[in-house]
Design goal:
This protein is mostly helical. It contains 9 helices and 2 strands. 83% of the residues lie in helices and 2% in strands. Keywords: Cell membrane, Membrane, Protein transport, Translocation, Transmembrane, Transmembrane helix, Transport.
Length: 260
């Protein structure tokens, strides 16, 4: 009987997960449709920006134009879908949380959108121009003529912008996982060396191979991790205080029962 009950519970969990994934996929598809409506204005803005001046972009296949529109639509849909995905994740795990934890983790969801936009702005206006300037200077020193396809230009752009934007979600992810009691500041401090190595590696990969560019990207990423540790400690202390209060109430209730 117990095994049957566990199997039913597992089936219910899988059914619930499938329902959440369908919701996310539906919003992503709607976001793609909306993304196609804004793809042309975004494309015009990106190609008229200062970073794109001096480049004559070419189409080397019949699908290059629609491919760029699809990438823009996909990025737009990701921005819209990301907070909704986090909300669906919260809905999936919330039945296993205490009411206090459920309320505490829910408030992180709106900030997913804000942090992604901040990361998007930083990566496009700071990291991308540095990377583009460096690669162009190397090409010029080699005496090569810069003849780029629009596909290559936008692949280079999105290959830098998207990873850096997602990294800006790190503090929120750490707080969310701390709220779920999966992480805590003690564990994060022990992981600091490994985390620093990973973040420095990412900074070196997404930027030109010169110290200044690496440094300008590396410092914000390391600060993001330290902010994450600080915020995790804030959430963790509130959890300890709540646990202590709950334990105190339980002891008082036990004492009253004993007195009776």
């Amino acid at each position: 009987m117990t095994q049957q009950k566990e199997e039913m519970t597992l089936t219910e969990h899988l059914s619930e997960l499938r329902k959440r994934l369908i919701y996310v996929l539906s919003i992503f598809i709607l976001g793609l449709v909306a993304g196609f409506l804004v793809a042309d204005p975004v494309y015009q803005y990106l190609t008229k920006a200062e970073t794109a001046q001096g480049f004559v972009l070419h189409a080397f296949s019949f699908w290059d134009g629609i491919g760029i529109y699809m990438k823009i639509a996909g990025l737009f849909s990701l921005v819209i879908t990301l907070p909704f995905t986090v909300f669906q994740l919260w809905k999936f795990v919330s039945p296993g949380l205490r009411p206090r934890e459920r309320k505490a983790t829910l408030k992180y969801v709106p900030y997913v959108f804000l942090l992604f936009l901040i990361g998007l702005a930083f990566s496009y206006y700071v990291v991308f121009p540095m990377a583009l300037s460096f690669t162009s200077s190397i090409t010029e020193k080699m005496g090569l003529v810069e003849t780029y396809g629009m596909k290559q230009y936008f692949s280079f752009l999105f290959g830098i912008v998207l990873p850096v934007s997602l990294l800006f979600e790190l503090p929120l992810i750490i707080m969310f996982l701390t709220g779920l009691r999966i992480l805590n500041p003690i564990r994060l401090r022990k992981m600091r060396r490994v985390a620093y190595f990973v973040l420095i590696f990412i900074a070196v990969v997404v930027t030109p191979p010169d110290f200044i560019s690496d440094f300008l990207v590396m410092i914000p990423l390391l600060l993001l991790y330290e902010i994450s540790v600080f915020l995790s400690g804030f959430v963790y202390r509130k959890q300890l205080a709540a646990d202590a209060e709950a334990e105190s109430r339980y002891i008082r209730a036990e004492d009253k029962q004993s007195a009776v």
